[in-house]
Amino acid sequence: xxxxxxxxxxxxxxxxxxxxxxxxxxxxxxxxxxxxxxxxxxxxxxxxxxxxxxxxxxxxxxxxxxxxxxxxxxxxxxxxxxxxxxxxxxxxxxxxxxxxxxxxxxxxxxxxxxxxxxxxxxxxxxxxxxxxxxxxxxxxxxxxxxxxxxxxxxxxxxxxxxxxxxxxxxxxxxxxxxxxxxxxxxxxxxxxxxxxxxxxxxxxxxxxxxxxxxxxxxxxxxxxxxxxxxxxxxxxxxxxxxxxxxxxxxxxxxxxxxxxxxxxxxxxxxxxxxxxxxxxxxxxxxxxxxxxxxxxxxxxxxxxxxxxxxxxxxxxxxxxxxxxxxxxxxxxxxxxxxxxxxxxxxxxxxxxxxxxxxxxxxxxxxxxxxxxxxxxxxxxxxxxxxxxxxxxxxxxxxxxxxxxxxxxxxxxxxxxxxxxxxxxxxxxxxxxxxxxxxxxxxxxxxxxxxxxxxxxxxxxxxxxxxx
Length: 467
Fold this sequence. Notes:
44% of the residues lie in helices and 18% in strands. The protein has helices at residues 2-17, 32-50, 83-104, 107-111, 114-130, 133-141, 146-172, 177-185, 191-211, 213-219, 222-225, 241-244, 256-259, 269-272, 293-305, 317-320, 330-351, and strands spanning 55-56, 59-60, 62-65, 70-73, 76-78, 236-239, 312-315, 356-362, 369-370, 376-386, 392-399, 405-407, 413-415, 420-429, 438-447, 454-462. Strands 8, 9, 10, 12 and 14 form a 5-stranded antiparallel sheet that branches. Strands 13-11-15-16 form a 4-stranded antiparallel sheet, with no helix packed on it. It is elongated, with a radius of gyration of 32 Å. Residues 1-6 have low confidence and may be disordered.
């Protein structure tokens, strides 16, 4: 008898993990948090769609030129050799995410995540064409007449156009967007540009138009491990059970004490406005993206009932239990300290960055050779990389031992922007000047065009010791 029960439990678990999507019709809401989401959406979308059209110092302000291996970010030009800076930036982003999660829950998800931002704009387009949630639900349950297909076709047409423009903008970060626009108008797009415009466009169309909350609930790993960063002092959106229960309807303006109920009138609006379809009154749930729509609508209901705001609010578990709350606590200071140190390191690296890389390789086939003149000779191969945005001409000098002679090109070393050259050199010295079998020498390379552009690199000179 136990086996069927076990199979039944397994089936229920499987059904929950792979639950078929039921379309959610979130109700439009207004309030301070809705205004903040709208502001964040406008700012982020404005940056995404507008940034590629800005020119800076003769080139696109932000351009990841993969064929040329150049990455322009305003006045800075980076190369694959500068991967260190990208690593630092990713570390900063991760630490900032951890810090804000420990501080105030899923702020990233509710206000800045691309999935949330694009879902918001797609829902806005949907509401403008189809109407509010009630009209959408009524149309979906009604007859499939001509009016239905006209409205739905108009909505999906607008979605597709916006999706393709999103894909076009994405490609514009890798191919100069003005050239891309000219190619588009002449219908002369390359195969890779065409592929990525449609791929990224339809990915946006599917995620923001259809999958929506499914991405947040089932696909995003952040929803699963976020609780590891929560503690009893983390600000989360919560329903005050002590104040709200027992729930029940009553006439507007009726004091809760007069009817023996809590302040929650059980209107269900907090569920109707939730973009992931959860009931915040059931407690903290991993599906909650922290958009605070339930706070806005509940505060509006409290205002109409004449009750104090804050039945649903940003609060902490300690606060709900009547315990002291510490928002800025040791773990937050640890995050701030690490974030400050790494950010300062990144800024220092950018400010002191030298757009020239030198790799000195000494000939390892022989330790040294002796010339017919009795001089000791070492052979080196210098790999010079010009990471500046313009071509450069360099000169080279070597110091560290008295009487060094450099055989090879030392002036007028021309390198194009982003180019790599191999510069073979031979260095000779009288063995009398050698004090040990291995001596340190210094290669100094400086630009003849940009005096501030110079670099020093150490190397070893090998030879016999004079007796």
